Amino acid sequence: MADYPYNTARWQRLRIAHLRLSPLCIGCAAMSIVRPANTVDHTRAISAGGPAFPGHDGLASYCAACHSAKTARGTEAGAAKTQRPRKGCDVNGNPLDPAHPWNAEKSLRAEGSRTEHGHENSISLIG
Ligand SMILES: [Zn+2]
């Protein structure tokens, strides 16, 4: 964390400015939790060619827990840059990878539950 660009005064200013602009963790906000952010993340990782000092639209505020979870998932959990399956889960525990078998089974399960609980509807659909 002490490496470039995080060890520069420019980053410190940008970080503070972004936390003022966006003071809440966007990861927690996605789960309807209001929690102050204390970490500013590059939306596009510097290692992936992103700018070291992007505009505020290239930055994201996170709490420490969400930031470490995001970092642990790896860059493929962010914007799709590879064809490899996406690792990790969303806030509901469902896999992020749309090609994951769980997601195919989920649509089948949804069909099954509709038939199970909505006989009238399924009959009228068939007729
Ligand atoms: Zn958070």
Bound molecules: zinc ion
Please provide the ordered H/E string of secondary-structure elements. Answer: HHEEHHH
| Shape, per Cα inertia axes | globular
Distance from first to last alpha carbon = 64 Å
Number of helices: 5
Largest sheet: 2 strands, antiparallel
Mean pLDDT reading: 79
Task: Assess the beta-strand content as a share of residues.
Answer: 5-15%
Q: Pick out the low-confidence regions.
A: 79-83
Number of separate strands: 2
Structural class based on helices, strands and sheet pairing: mainly alpha
> Approximately how much helix is present in the residues?
40-55%
Give the neighbour order of strands across the main sheet.
1-2
What is the radius of gyration? 20 Å
Question: Features of this protein?
Answer:
binds zinc ion, 41% helix, two-stranded antiparallel ribbon, 5 helices, 127 residues, globular, mainly alpha
Q: SSE layout and pairings?
A:
Elements: H1 9-21, H2 26-29, E1 39-42, E2 59-62, H3 64-73, H4 101-117, H5 119-126
Antiparallel strand pairs: 1-2
Bound molecules: zinc ion.
Zinc ion is lined by residues 25, 27-28, 35, 62-63, 65-66.
